[in-house]
Amino acid sequence: MSTQRALFCADIVSEIAETINLDSTCTPQQRRQCLAPMARVSRSFSDPSLRALWADMNTLEPLIKILPDVIDAVESVGGLALNGRDTYRYALNGDVSDVAWNRFEQYASRIQTLALHHWQTNILDPLSWNYLARRATGPLLPSLRSLIWPVAPPYHIDSTCLLSPSLRKLKILFPFSDVIPPDQWAHGIRMFFRNTFLAAPNLRVLAMWSGTIANENISHRVPLRAFGDALSSLTMLPQLTMFQSLHFPIVVDNYSLLSALAALPLLCDLLLHVDLRQGQLKGITSGFSHLKRLSLSGVLDSESLTDFRESSALQALRLVHHPNAALLDLHQALKVISKQHPLLSQLIWRHSLESHQPDSLTRLLEPISGLRELRVLTLSFTNATLSDSDIELVATGCPCLIKLKLKCRKGSAQGGSPTTHALVVLARQCPSLSLLYLSSIRMSEVDYSAVDTLPVLDHGLELLGFGQLHCESDRFSAMVVDRLFPRLDISQSQRGVTKPPPERWADVLDQLESFQYARKQERQRGTQMNG
To answer: Which superkingdom (predicted)?
Structure first.
């Protein structure tokens, strides 16, 4: 009976510790302040509290300081005796006893998530890392599942001792280009990636992040091309499902990286900033068949999109065109997308240079009727005008839309903006729409005089935003919106879709709030009378 009760108490303590550790309302510091005293209450409290306390770490300093023979290399007077190791935060000054090593391993085995930062790359000197790697009979962090890992050239092989076969998610932080000269970036990078993938062969998610490097700079192209070549060893990760290069423009003009990615059998998420030209995947007969989400930056022409023709299961596509992309090719790009991916549910599309954008979206949007299953659409062409006919193309072509954002050039009170007619079309054609953002809207006296003739659809739109509202009467504009979208969430709309609403639209939202409040009061009075 006592054993059953002890186990029951241990389960309760574990649940408490886990609840504290997962509490999103607390900061990491607050969670640690709760868990640390719990670990000192009793033996039954100690293990679950320590397990939760050490599961998620943002520094290795507490683990390193467990070793009794570690010294502060920065503050050490005998810096010269360390053979130059005084540039590192800590260093081992002798062998570690068996007792100390067992304690080190006990705590190291509890770490499951480790998020390091660039300033922590030199926390322990390479000789000490080598000693720890030799002393360990297996991985130093055998339970590690997720790692944010800052690295810098020269890429020491010993630094991979943090990795483990248990690792499933790895984000590698490379230095900013103004910190490390471009010609040093790729030194030893091929061996670095091979050793990394050997040490963590079961990765599911791999992301790379760095400061933006202008890949148009000739001095940067060679080292970045070497990165692309080195990443051909991605084929060593057959279980990889997601690859991301965040703010890391890899120059891919030899297709080595793309061919390696195409060979991954389970890859379903791909985010790349590439200089993607026509024919990049020539010679690759198959690949990308399991892709569900694809994000490409730097696309130059529509033909390059045909390289992903086997991605029939694609659900989400984010496309950012290269500044030099041909204007006439944008229409063809949407045509290719509609033909290859008719089951696409999310499309986010923008051009990265305003001066190279089309003046009108009408021709661009013609092929959109091929995307009947589209649920989310975001277009960002801030130099193009938007008209009622453009929105009608979208609404009739994509009747299943749930979220629609059209970021275009803001028109004037005289023209160049959609009118109330566009809102009526959307309300009629897209019954599931819950979020709508238009860069501008124009409501005239004609709309106000015809407000009673507008359809009453009881549409369920919750969030509505305009970058600019041209109107003559806040009250009549509110009446128009209220008739079409009576269930609008005013508080959400007041916070804005992309940023706080402009003053005129904010005033209309205040009017809408008063309309909804009046309806609520009327319903309550009716309920009381019927009761």
So the answer is: Eukaryota
